[in-house]
Design goal:
Largest sheet: 4 strands, antiparallel
Oligomer: single chain
Radius of gyration: 15 Å
Helix content: 10-25%
Strand order of the largest sheet: 3-4-5-6
Shape: elongated
Order of helices and strands: HEEEEEEHH
Protein backbone atom coordinates (compact mmCIF):
# COMPACT_ATOMS: atom_id res chain seq x y z
CA UNK A 1 0.00 0.00 0.00
CA UNK A 2 1.20 3.46 -0.85
CA UNK A 3 1.31 5.93 2.04
CA UNK A 4 0.08 8.74 -0.20
CA UNK A 5 -3.00 7.11 -1.74
CA UNK A 6 -6.10 8.67 -0.14
CA UNK A 7 -8.58 6.38 -1.89
CA UNK A 8 -6.72 3.17 -1.14
CA UNK A 9 -6.30 4.00 2.54
CA UNK A 10 -9.92 5.13 2.90
CA UNK A 11 -11.36 2.08 1.14
CA UNK A 12 -9.21 -0.35 3.12
CA UNK A 13 -10.16 1.30 6.43
CA UNK A 14 -13.89 1.32 5.66
CA UNK A 15 -13.96 -2.27 4.47
CA UNK A 16 -12.00 -3.49 7.49
CA UNK A 17 -14.04 -1.56 10.08
CA UNK A 18 -17.45 -2.44 8.68
CA UNK A 19 -16.62 -6.13 8.20
CA UNK A 20 -14.94 -6.87 11.54
CA UNK A 21 -16.77 -6.78 14.89
CA UNK A 22 -13.44 -6.85 16.77
CA UNK A 23 -12.57 -3.47 15.24
CA UNK A 24 -15.97 -1.74 15.33
CA UNK A 25 -18.71 -3.38 17.44
CA UNK A 26 -22.15 -4.44 16.24
CA UNK A 27 -25.06 -2.05 16.72
CA UNK A 28 -28.69 -2.60 17.72
CA UNK A 29 -31.51 -1.66 15.38
CA UNK A 30 -35.25 -1.80 15.88
CA UNK A 31 -37.41 -3.16 13.07
CA UNK A 32 -41.13 -3.01 13.80
CA UNK A 33 -40.61 -3.40 17.55
CA UNK A 34 -38.05 -6.16 17.02
CA UNK A 35 -34.49 -5.37 18.16
CA UNK A 36 -31.71 -6.88 16.10
CA UNK A 37 -27.95 -6.81 16.48
CA UNK A 38 -26.13 -6.23 13.20
CA UNK A 39 -23.02 -4.81 11.61
CA UNK A 40 -22.99 -1.05 11.11
CA UNK A 41 -23.35 0.14 7.54
CA UNK A 42 -21.84 3.17 5.85
CA UNK A 43 -24.96 5.13 6.90
CA UNK A 44 -24.24 4.43 10.60
CA UNK A 45 -20.73 5.86 10.72
CA UNK A 46 -18.94 9.18 10.46
CA UNK A 47 -15.65 9.08 8.61
CA UNK A 48 -12.73 11.45 9.15
CA UNK A 49 -9.84 11.23 6.70
CA UNK A 50 -6.77 13.47 6.84
CA UNK A 51 -3.01 13.50 6.30
CA UNK A 52 -0.72 13.15 9.28
CA UNK A 53 3.06 13.50 9.58
CA UNK A 54 5.10 10.78 11.30
CA UNK A 55 8.75 10.68 12.35
CA UNK A 56 9.46 7.43 10.50
CA UNK A 57 8.07 5.05 7.93
CA UNK A 58 6.66 2.94 10.80
CA UNK A 59 3.93 5.61 11.07
CA UNK A 60 2.11 5.41 14.41
CA UNK A 61 2.72 1.69 14.82
CA UNK A 62 6.15 2.02 16.41
CA UNK A 63 8.93 -0.45 15.81
CA UNK A 64 11.62 -0.28 13.16
CA UNK A 65 11.11 2.10 10.28
CA UNK A 66 13.17 4.37 8.12
CA UNK A 67 14.03 7.63 9.84
CA UNK A 68 12.54 9.81 7.11
CA UNK A 69 9.59 12.06 7.92
CA UNK A 70 6.58 10.34 6.36
CA UNK A 71 3.12 11.66 5.54
CA UNK A 72 0.29 9.14 5.50
CA UNK A 73 -3.49 9.27 5.60
CA UNK A 74 -5.19 8.72 8.93
CA UNK A 75 -8.78 7.47 8.84
CA UNK A 76 -11.04 7.55 11.88
CA UNK A 77 -14.38 5.76 11.69
CA UNK A 78 -16.86 6.65 14.44
CA UNK A 79 -20.05 4.76 15.28
CA UNK A 80 -21.96 5.93 18.36
CA UNK A 81 -19.31 6.22 21.12
CA UNK A 82 -16.88 3.80 19.47
CA UNK A 83 -14.10 4.57 17.01
CA UNK A 84 -11.53 2.76 14.90
CA UNK A 85 -8.28 4.48 13.90
CA UNK A 86 -6.29 3.52 10.80
CA UNK A 87 -2.92 4.68 9.53
CA UNK A 88 -2.42 4.27 5.76
CA UNK A 89 -5.42 1.92 5.69
CA UNK A 90 -4.06 -0.41 8.40
CA UNK A 91 -5.96 -0.74 11.67
CA UNK A 92 -4.02 0.89 14.50
CA UNK A 93 -6.45 0.77 17.44
CA UNK A 94 -10.08 0.93 18.48
CA UNK A 95 -11.62 3.02 21.25
CA UNK A 96 -14.79 2.03 23.11
CA UNK A 97 -16.74 4.82 24.80
CA UNK A 98 -14.30 7.55 23.80
CA UNK A 99 -13.94 10.69 25.90
CA UNK A 100 -13.20 14.39 25.46
CA UNK A 101 -9.47 13.82 24.89
CA UNK A 102 -10.26 11.63 21.87
CA UNK A 103 -12.64 14.27 20.47
CA UNK A 104 -9.98 16.93 20.98
CA UNK A 105 -7.31 14.92 19.12
CA UNK A 106 -9.75 14.18 16.31
CA UNK A 107 -10.70 17.85 15.99
CA UNK A 108 -6.99 18.76 15.74
CA UNK A 109 -6.40 15.96 13.17
CA UNK A 110 -3.54 14.61 15.28
CA UNK A 111 -4.19 11.04 16.35
CA UNK A 112 -1.60 9.54 18.71
CA UNK A 113 0.52 6.51 17.96
CA UNK A 114 -0.59 3.07 19.13
CA UNK A 115 1.61 3.20 22.24
CA UNK A 116 0.48 6.69 23.21
CA UNK A 117 -3.21 5.95 22.55
CA UNK A 118 -3.12 3.00 24.95
CA UNK A 119 -2.23 5.35 27.80
CA UNK A 120 -4.20 8.39 26.66
CA UNK A 121 -7.55 6.67 26.02
CA UNK A 122 -7.72 4.19 28.93
Amino acid sequence: MSYDSPLDSLAEALYTALANSEILPDIERTFRHDKRTMRPSIRDVKVYHFQQMWGSTALGFGGMGGSAMTTAYTTVIVCDQNAAVFFAGRHAYSIDNFDASFKEDLAKHIMPSVDTATERYK
